[in-house]
Structure prediction request, 222 residues.
Amino acid sequence: MQSFQYVRTHSRKERSSMIEVLEKNGYSTEQDYRNLTKQDILESKLPFRVDATSKTYGLMGNVTCAAAAASSNALTEYNDFILKPDILENMIENLLETSFWIIDVLPRRVSKARAKQYSDLEKVFLHSEELLKKHYNIILKLNCYYNLKMVDFDGHELGDADPEKLSEYIGHKPVYFLFEDSLISLDPDDMHMTLYNPSKTILSTVKQIATSEGMFLWKPGK
Prediction:
């Protein structure tokens, strides 16, 4: 059984993310007759060659090999590769350590002196149909712009964020939404969602969508 696989990417951003994910999982560039550098691999359009046994990565031989692999369905797509359990778990752990923003019913953090008033708000909003609908709509709208993948808090991939699955999880089970190089965390015991590692474009899109649902987007410490 072969220990390697070929992974196809569709943009420079995906290639950069692929290299980052591999190296955070202990992979290094393979040493072959081509002496490829990380920059060579980043700039190439050839599929990645990923060897799980030697924990190395490189490039498929040439364009002809890539075309043959594509026609015989021998290529793994980038999005499918990063959802492998071992890769996925490490990726989520890394994203949870990045900078984050809060998608909330309030525009900023509440002081400890107002803890009772915040508790009163929780009694009204938490688990309410109004709040669940806001969370549901935000994810559904965001899914129009990005391919959101759902992952449970145990690291099991749940598939696409379709309406039926959203209804099953939002307000009932904790869930992650993985997309691009970002992550949204949603726990049914919280009134807010947490957005990790957003690009400027994602941040702008999420802010507009959150505002349309009467929610706020704020960064802790600001």
User: Anything to note?
Assistant: The first strand starts at residue 4 and ends at 8. Residues 93 and 155 are 10 Å apart (CA to CA).
